[in-house]
């Protein structure tokens, strides 16, 4: 996703990006680069959390829950039904990380 935003920012003519409405911040080249950076940081955090979870680290639960909240809450606020469903699945997965069987597995 970060690559898509980066390429969209690089290939966009001045003032537009992928046919988006110019009133939206993500419609500009700078907005596309910011979205690419944010998507990249969230992808790195998720990957780090997944590796830590496989290594049974307790800090992985906090990291993955933080990423889920950072991504899930704005999706709920957007109000689109498909984004709402995605956010609920994401937040439900984060809630499962706090159940006692997994907590016993972590050190």
Can you describe what's shown?
With 107 residues, the chain is mostly helical. It has two domains: 1-44; 56-107. 73% of the residues lie in helices and 0% in strands. It has helices at residues 2-11, 29-54, 59-78, 81-96, 100-105. α1 packs antiparallel against α2 and α2 (29-54) runs antiparallel to α3. It starts with a helix and ends with a helix. 10% of the residues are buried.
Largest sheet: none
Low-confidence blocks of residues: none
Helix content: over 70%
Number of domains: 2
Determine the structural class based on helices, strands and strand pairing. Answer: mainly alpha
Radius of gyration: 17 Å
Tell me what portion of residues adopts beta-strand conformation: under 5%
Mean pLDDT: 84
Question: Could you write a compact summary of the structure shown?
Answer:
The chain is mostly helical and 107 residues long.
Name the descriptors.
107 residues; mainly alpha; 2 domains; 73% helix; elongated; transmembrane helix; membrane; transmembrane
Layout of SSEs?
Blueprint (H helix, E strand, L loop, with lengths): L1 H10 L17 H26 L4 H20 L2 H16 L3 H6 L2
